[in-house]
Write a structure and sequence with these properties.
Length: about 350
């Protein structure tokens, strides 16, 4: 139960970020989800709950499970199936984080040592597999083939997105369409599924399901676009992250794609040296940020994020006005506003 207390403490720390209306509306359900998470990550193999608890307690905004809870509430659901599915969504997300940190050789996440930095790569990968398995157990326990189809498809798409990102990493010839394909698979797919299953448990018509799926997908794209801009922002330090991690990893994000397209031959040679050859020199990150500012690529990526956030908000038009609808629309604004 110590994990539940830690999660609650962490979420209270989010009060400055615009999530508080949604947190307040789903608070009771979210505490129930936290208890389910603790229960289902238990194992007689002591390292599993120890390592899983490390990353789950390190937490974050719990945005994806909150979207499942809020989507069900928006649709007037009165049962408790959404609780297990929200826990399932969080397990899928946490498993991908464990695997991501191994692939990226990351030492820090939200200012804390990553699981792979503490326990090593092999335990992190295997506990990630355990959490994926727990997620599928929760899907099966729900008993809905529609839920199983939506969440299992999302899991497969996320994995494809991870592999696609590996293929485009360090490749300065990658274009915007390749970048968007990665974002839609790696990030937006789980946002979309998390929202759609809320409508499924509430037995809504397909139109409502698709509206919530669109809300989640466009929200996820906006969220990732802003994340990619923040990697080149001093605000990263406030978020417990290092500035320039994507740059050092050779990730081809939208601000980079646009800077390469708009740059001179000399500038493109700089990007190739850094991102393809991984040949970094003192001052390279600062020069990269200066090039992005010169060509307006950070601003343009943010403008695109705003368009997706607006599209997400518009997807909720078919639902009646309510406090939960307003809170969900506020989330779209929060995703963009956190860059300032």
């Amino acid at each position: 139960m110590a994990l539940v207390a830690e999660v609650g403490k962490e979420q209270k720390g989010q009060d400055r970020n615009g999530l508080e209306p949604l947190i307040a509306l789903v608070a009771e359900d979210l505490q129930a989800v936290n208890r389910l998470i603790v229960t289902h990550m238990d194992s007689p193999v002591a390292l599993i709950p120890q390592l899983a608890g490390h990353i789950v307690a390190a937490g974050g905004k719990r945005l994806r499970p909150m979207l499942t809870l809020a989507s069900a509430k928006l649709c007037g659901y009165r049962g408790d199936r959404h609780l297990g599915l929200a826990a399932c969504v969080e397990f899928i997300h946490t498993a991908t984080l464990l695997h991501d940190d191994v692939v990226d050789a990351s030492d820090l996440r939200r200012g804390l040592a990553t699981a792979n930095a503490v326990w090593g790569n092999k335990p992190s990968v295997l506990v990630g597999d355990f959490l994926f398995s727990r997620a599928f157990q929760l899907m099966v326990a729900d008993g809905s083939l529609d839920v199983l189809r939506i969440l299992s498809n999302a899991s497969a798409v996320i994995a494809e997105g991870e592999v696609l990102q590996l293929m485009t990493a360090n490749d300065t010839s990658s274009d915007e369409s390749a970048y968007m394909e990665v974002v839609e698979a790696k990030t937006a797919a789980l946002f979309a599924a998390a929202c759609r299953v809320g409508a499924v448990v509430a037995e809504q018509a397909e139109a409502e399901e698709l509206a919530l799926e669109r809300f989640g997908r466009d929200l996820g794209i906006a969220f990732q676009l802003v994340d990619d801009v923040l990697d080149y922002s001093a605000l990263q330090a406030e978020l417990g992250k290092s500035v320039g991690d994507d740059f050092r990893d050779g990730k081809i994000t939208l601000p980079v794609v646009l800077a390469i397209q708009r740059g001179s031959d000399e500038e493109r040679a700089f990007w190739r040296r850094c991102l393809e050859d991984q040949d970094y020199q003192d001052g390279d990150l600062e020069h990269a940020i200066a090039l992005m500012q010169r060509h307006g690529t950070l601003e343009d990526a943010m403008a695109q994020a705003r368009r997706y956030a607006a599209s997400a908000s518009a997807a909720l038009d078919r639902f009646p006005e309510s406090a939960i609808k307003t809170a969900l629309r506020d989330i779209a604004g929060f995703c963009v506003d956190r860059a300032y």
